[in-house]
């Protein structure tokens, strides 16, 4: 009786193992299923899509793919890690000028073939390992270029904003300079208009007035010399003559 029970238990265990093995083989690996879903989505065709004949797929924009799409399904944004996963499932990089990958069982419109793709064994040949290492290095270089590009863009934006600020300040200073020149000219015209230009008497004593702001020199007949803010100006003789006529 005991022997019969043992045989029955053993048979049940074997059946369960068989069911688990069947379920495992009939269910695609989550990584492959998620990748297939990304490629099939027409909204992401500008970033990742099938190649021309549907026997592989192309990651057109690795930086955008890592930044925007990977986190939505794989919980990370590392393009190199994604490439390593592809290598473990037997994908090959088939183009040197772009990120194009192929696997005989990974084809457009044949989703049922995903169940036949399994992870590679540890005894994969050395050539495959070398190819995987080269692909990983390329993906690492791509990550570096992407990071460098982002840093350069940030520096460019900073310099552009600083340049705009300096241009604005320069414009303000130019406006202030023009305003100050205009005010200085108006002040000089005012001093010239109301300055004492009566130098008719040659026998009069010299009358010099010197202060911090202006100095009028009437030592002798001739052009009137006005000193304003330390700068000497000669008043037009015609203006003096016209003023004398008006006063007379």
From TrEMBL:
Residues 158-170 have a biased composition (Basic and acidic residues). GO terms for cellular component: nucleus. Residues 198-214 have a biased composition (Acidic residues). The keyword DNA-binding applies. Residues 128-170, 196-223 are annotated as: Disordered. Residues 128-137 have a biased composition (Low complexity). One of its GO terms (molecular function) is sequence-specific DNA binding. Residues 70-94 form the HSF-type DNA-binding domain. SUPFAM superfamilies: Winged helix' DNA-binding domain. It is found in: Nucleus. Its main location: nucleus. Keywords: DNA-binding, Nucleus, Phosphoprotein, Stress response, Transcription, Transcription regulation. Homotrimer. Belongs to the HSF family. This is HSF-type DNA-binding domain-containing protein. It comes from Citrus sinensis.
């Amino acid at each position: 009786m005991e022997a019969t029970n043992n045989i029955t238990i053993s048979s049940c265990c074997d059946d369960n193992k068989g069911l688990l093995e069947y379920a495992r083989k009939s269910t695609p690996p989550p990584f492959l299923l998620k990748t297939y879903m990304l490629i099939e989505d027409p909204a992401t065709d500008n970033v990742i899509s099938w190649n021309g004949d549907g026997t592989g797929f192309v990651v057109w924009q690795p930086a955008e793919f890592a930044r925007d799409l990977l986190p939505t399904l794989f919980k990370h944004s590392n393009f190199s890690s994604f490439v390593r996963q592809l290598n473990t499932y037997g994908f090959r990089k088939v183009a040197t000028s772009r990120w194009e990958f192929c696997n005989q069982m990974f084809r457009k419109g044949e989703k049922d073939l995903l169940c036949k793709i399994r992870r590679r064994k540890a005894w994969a040949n050395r050539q495959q390992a070398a190819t995987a290492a080269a692909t990983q290095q390329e993906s690492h270089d791509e990550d570096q270029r992407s990071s460098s590009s982002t840093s350069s863009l940030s520096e460019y934006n900073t310099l552009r904003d600083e340049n705009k600020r300096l241009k604005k300040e320069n414009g303000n200073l130019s406006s202030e300079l023009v305003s100050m020149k205009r005010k200085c000219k108006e002040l000089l015209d005012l001093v010239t208009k109301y300055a004492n230009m009566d130098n008719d008497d040659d026998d009069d004593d010299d009358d010099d007035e010197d202060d911090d702001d202006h100095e009028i020199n009437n030592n002798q007949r001739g052009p009137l010399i006005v000193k304003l803010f330390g700068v000497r100006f000669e008043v037009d003789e015609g203006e003096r003559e016209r003023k004398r006529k008006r006063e007379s």
